[in-house]
Design brief:
This protein has helices spanning 12-21, 49-59, 61-70, 80-83, 190-202, and strands at residues 2-5, 26-29, 40-43, 75-78, 86-89, 95-96, 101-107, 121-129, 142-149, 151-154, 160-166, 168-176, 179-182. The chain has a single domain, classed as 3-Layer(aba) Sandwich (Rossmann fold), CATH 3.40.50.880. It is of the alpha/beta class.
């Protein structure tokens, strides 16, 4: 069974529906003590990093997620959920994350260009696969997905499985052994996104 973590930071219905479209049953889970009962978990999220971490800490879900990650079972963070996997974020101050992937979350640097970048980065853009990973199985080396975000991850190339260009290149997908993260929304990305969801379900 695949668990989708509910910590009141996003529309879970679209994630549930996307897994249903590829024939996979999921359950929305509020109880941190039940996380280890699942074969795989999804950490979705829309909103601010600091608020999200407060919700996770208040419920004890933060430590439950770390315990799940340590079990070796597959974990996938989506959008804000990917950002929460990192050590810290500079969004509205400095906030500690889950620390499951070394690196930080930073704002788009809009000062580099004559015409400043529009933030948030919103819409369809290409993800360029950086290495072989089961998450991108049967997808081309570059493919379009749907993005909505104002901050992005910075990490070592050893954890980077996907990059995207918006003014400059940034990390858009990561993997640290059994821990995966993807900045765009696969549940909103039609066939390419559904393929990623299907691949994760097969792990």
């Amino acid at each position: 069974m695949i668990g989708i973590i509910n910590y009141h930071m996003g529309n879970l219905a679209s994630v549930v529906n996307a897994f249903a479209k590829v024939g996979e049953q999921t359950k929305v889970e509020n109880d941190p003590e039940k996380l280890l009962d699942y074969d795989k978990i999804i950490l979705p999220g829309v909103g601010a990093f600091g608020d999200a971490m407060q919700h996770l800490q208040k419920s004890g879900m933060d430590e439950a997620i770390k315990a799940f990650a340590a079990s070796g079972k597959p974990l996938l963070g989506i959008c804000l959920g990917m950002q929460l996997l990192f050590e810290n974020s500079e969004e509205f101050g400095s906030h500690a994350g889950l620390g499951l992937i070394p690196g930080q979350v930073v704002a788009f640097d809009t000062t580099k260009f004559d015409h400043p970048l529009k933030v948030p980065h919103m819409g369809w853009n290409e993800l360029f696969a950086q290495k072989n990973t089961p998450l991108f199985e049967d997808l081309p080396k570059d493919f379009y997905l749907y993005f909505v975000h104002s901050f992005h991850a910075v990490c070592d190339d050893k954890y980077t499985i996907g990059k995207t260009h918006y003014g400059y290149g940034f990390v858009s997908a990561v993997q640290n052994e059994n821990i995966f993260g993807i900045q765009p929304h696969p549940e909103k990305s039609h066939s390419n996104g559904l393929k990623i969801i299907e691949n994760f379900a097969k792990l």
